[in-house]
Amino acid sequence: QSKADGRNAYHFYVAAMDAEVQARKAIERDMRLALGTPQLELHYQPLLDLKSGRIVGCEALLRWNHPQLGWVPPAQFIPVIERTDLIIPLGRWILHQACRQGRAWRDAGLGPMTIAVNLSPVQFRHSQGLVAMVTDILDQTGLAPEALQLEITEGIAMQNVDSSIEVLKALRALGVTISIDDFGTGYSSLNYLKRFPVDKLKIDRSFVIDIGQHPDNEAVVKAIVDLGHSLRTRVNVEGVESRTQLDFLLAHGVDEAQGYYFSRPVPADAFAALARDPRDWLAADPEDGG
Ligand code: C2E
Ligand code: MG
Ligand code: MG
Ligand code: MG
């Protein structure tokens, strides 16, 4: 590689960096304007109980309908917002909105539904604020704490083990449940994991993708199911897209599944319609209409 190539690469790098900084500033500016407007919405993806074949809850997922760009995926803006102070009001809005919706569903007779809400690492690190915020929002919305599940990633929990355990204990003392998201992608020490007060492990989608084709990933799924059960947690698998995958999960004792096979994340009304549908979701291919 010549010197000139190196310099060009550097110039290219600087230009790209500048573009990235500009893009981040634009996202932050636009999100400031979006907060509190209908540009932001939560969608809800069903959680399927694999014993009963019924929808037992949902995961709330943030959606941003940007006035110029249209729908922007959370993977594009959440990491940017997490680097700003905006993540605190945004996180509060998400939790409030999800709890309010959960309460409204309960009032409308939808039956006991768990609403799972993702917590950002920044929210989790503001532990005092977090516990107070969850307490306030449950109070304001009147949602039963048992109906709220908070999702944290493996990485966040492992960063500062002792203080994480304290925060999780405080949250659980309120009555909410805790799940570890994207499980298997981080570096959990099993030694720590057994000390963590958690209620659910969510096996990351990457392990499910080639079920039926890749014996190694199947072995990992089986091992995590056993691990979760020996720690007395429920085990969820996310990203289920096919009957083959579902059959594997049913055969290996997975408790709960979530994925496009059943439903994509959908607006609140559409979720309520799915949850009221009395069908056995495991009986046949949902796309075949039962
Ligand atoms: P996550 O918490 O692991 O959420 C699951 C993601 O997998 C969602 O993507 C969901 O739409 C997607 N998914 C579910 N089933 C399938 C499937 O069968 N196939 C495929 N290809 N994808 C599936 P989404 O909504 O784009 O969110 C991506 C990530 O952004 C989330 O991952 C979460 O880390 C973050 N996120 C989303 N909403 C929020 C939020 O309200 N707060 C925070 N802090 N993070 C959020
Ligand atoms: Mg999640
Ligand atoms: Mg996940
Ligand atoms: Mg994931």
From TrEMBL:
Sequence ranges assigned to domain EAL in this UniProt record: 24-279
Lineage top rank: taxon: Bacteria
Identification of the protein by name: EAL domain-containing protein
